[in-house]
Design goal:
Length: about 70
């Protein structure tokens, strides 16, 4: 079984880095991806197609750990 790719199918606690900017997924609700930046107290929301377009340029990505 292939591992889920957070650039295409993001989920809670995934991280993706593009050009030195790392985004961590806080939640996925329908077609919306809510993300934050490590160490910052701020969140943003983008639609899934925009996430995929941004993440397509990723140099590093990691699937998150299972929720506690």
């Amino acid at each position: 079984m292939a591992e889920r790719d957070p650039r295409i199918d993001p989920a809670y606690r995934d991280s993706v880095t593009v050009a030195g900017e790392t985004r961590e997924v806080e939640a996925v609700i329908g077609e919306k991806v809510i993300y934050s930046w490590p160490g910052k107290i701020a969140v943003r929301t983008v639609y899934l197609p925009a996430w995929r377009a941004w993440a397509a340029k990723a140099s590093v990505w990691q699937t998150g750990a299972p929720a506690p």
